[in-house]
Design brief:
Order of helices and strands: HHHHHHH
């Protein structure tokens, strides 16, 4: 076992050393880039900077949620995709996949039936979303 670990460590060290020698950094190009770059002051236009830096979550797609529910519904990944919290995963885990798959199947049916407007399911932390 020790020989195997030694061989693995030696191989990793050799591979990382060989890859490390294949990269080169042109210091002059980096210095030129830094000298010619424009400085941004985040406090100058605070409202504009906050708007630029804010992350807008896209509305979840109903068909993506259906596919996730079909394959990973028993562990509540589709509910996380729809904006639920991680506590739903625990609920599905302790009920053996959402009462043995009944809850994810109901979620799938509800998503398909209400595919035109799923806004009432987005961000819901209720165990039974329908």
């Amino acid at each position: 076992m020790k020989k195997l670990l030694f061989t693995i460590c030696l191989t990793i060290g050799f591979v990382s050393y060989s890859f490390a020698n294949s990269y080169q950094v042109n210091d002059n190009a980096v210095e030129d880039l830094l000298e010619n770059s424009e400085q941004i002051n985040p406090f100058e236009n605070g409202a504009e900077m906050a708007q630029l830096m804010s992350v807008q979550a896209a509305d979840p797609n109903v068909w993506v949620a259906c596919v996730i529910d079909f394959f990973l519904g028993g562990i509540a990944i589709h509910r996380l995709y729809l904006g639920g919290t991680w506590i739903l995963i625990l609920g599905y885990f302790f009920t053996f996949g959402g009462i043995f798959g009944i809850i994810p199947f109901g979620d799938l049916i509800a998503l398909i039936i209400n595919s035109d407007d799923i806004s009432k399911y987005v961000g819901s932390n209720a165990f039974i979303m329908w």
